[in-house]
Task: inverse folding
């Protein structure tokens, strides 16, 4: 079978990844779900025809969504993950000495398909005693809950389908209310090259709500444009001002491949690209 | 017209850029040449169906091929550019107080088409009194010449067509012979993600010939995989050990957009990607 999955992401720009075989295909209440095998990236989770994560490079995205905030916050005990039904972010969070992680995923099928067919991404994260899995609308959850969290990680799809509301100012404002006074939120904010408008929108929302807001990047081969953006809103702690010894100290007991101490300041230095 | 130019660069990975119109198409003695307009990247030079450079992001590639060595060498007076018929590298070299630049391009048509249709890339570089343009085989030139150069910049296509020999150890050895005792050579060495074997090959060749050899990167949106590699061989000066004040001092009179002082150490820090 020679089949390609193509993603048109910019004005006249597309990325295509060959699909050797499809392990799963179905439609949940929220979206079209596939697990497919690619020669370059191994097993891939594909939602609404967009590659979400792959066996080969998932560690980069998940490490870079989770660790910069968890290392910058002096004592993250309670963490909330919105989305992230593949469990990859959860696995990274659990590498820290956190007490509790709530994961709110809207689509039960994503969790079940990932646990069955992408075990190398979630590991045994869902079995960890510190984890509470809620199949629920993340926006409704943050609006309703009376709990408080130290760190919120927004592990969403692109702003289409069930992901749209996760890019709204109202959602980030609700995140601010459930964060402690030292709390931090990090959201994936799109391709640093092909979704500059989206990155800017997230940063503007967070800037209007948090004393500190900044974008950082990681190089994720399977994502269109490779340079991917994450945007952080913080009530007190500035990841850009983190002393190198705190990063190294925190990572001593945390095993990572991409997010190494020297990558932290590099991530917060944005390459001056085409409209930069 | 809806036409796309696709480049399959990795195992089952392709990048496609839409072509709105074609300004020039022809076959030279060496290769197929096109100048086309894309919605995202403006005018693009396409050789043997691979995008070589675009109006929108050419500054990143050309700055990053030229400046790291020209800033690391304490007094670059005589510079040799092999390939680079579009004039973009030449333009960057001439921003420094060099005395002489020889550009050896094998394909006269590339120079003529670029001067006519891509004036924003070469500027007035070819008219500069310090420039000698030779339409010749770069390998033959370095084998034959008795001149000496401080810096050699290898601005080649991919290793196919006329570019193949520019990736050979014999060529780099000949470069070594025409470099002064403090000389440096820099070669573009392929996609950091999809041509890892090529990057490694160039580094191994240069390591076997020069006391110092190292790879650095830049983010170039129009190139497949975005993260692009350059590899430097140096007889004495180590760009990684360059004091920040030397970089800032040298760039005071050199106007750049991507290669700014803080980008120098970042370029020499390689992100730990898929094969570590």
Result:
């Amino acid at each position: 079978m020679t089949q390609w999955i193509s993603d048109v992401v910019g004005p006249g720009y597309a990325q295509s990844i060959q699909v050797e075989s499809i392990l799963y295909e179905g439609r949940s209440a929220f979206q079209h779900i596939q697990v497919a095998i690619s020669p370059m990236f191994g097993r891939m989770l594909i939602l609404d025809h967009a590659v979400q994560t792959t066996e080969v490079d998932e560690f980069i995205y998940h490490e870079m969504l989770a660790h910069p905030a968890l290392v910058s916050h002096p004592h993250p005990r309670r963490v909330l993950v919105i989305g992230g039904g593949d469990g990859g972010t959860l696995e990274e969070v659990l590498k820290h000495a956190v007490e509790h992680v709530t994961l709110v995923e809207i689509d039960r099928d994503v969790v079940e398909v990932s646990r069955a067919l992408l075990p190398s991404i979630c590991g045994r994260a869902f079995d960890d005693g510190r984890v509470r899995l809620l199949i629920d609308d993340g926006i409704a959850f943050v609006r309703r809950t009376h709990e408080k969290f130290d760190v919120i990680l927004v592990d969403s799809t692109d702003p289409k389908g069930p992901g749209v509301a996760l890019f709204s100012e109202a959602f980030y404002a609700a995140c601010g209310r459930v964060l402690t006074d030292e709390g931090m939120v990090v959201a994936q904010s799109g391709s640093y090259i092909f979704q500059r408008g989206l990155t800017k929108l997230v940063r503007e929302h967070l800037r209007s709500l948090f004393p500190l807001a900044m974008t950082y990047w990681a190089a994720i081969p399977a994502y269109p444009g490779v340079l991917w953006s994450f945007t952080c809103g913080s009530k007190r702690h500035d990841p850009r001002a983190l002393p190198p010894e705190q990063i190294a100290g925190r990572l001593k007991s945390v095993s990572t491949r991409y997010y190494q101490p020297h990558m932290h300041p590099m991530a917060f230095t944005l390459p001056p690209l085409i409209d930069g």
Summary: Chain B has two domains: 3-54, 58-267. The radius of gyration of chain B is 17 Å.
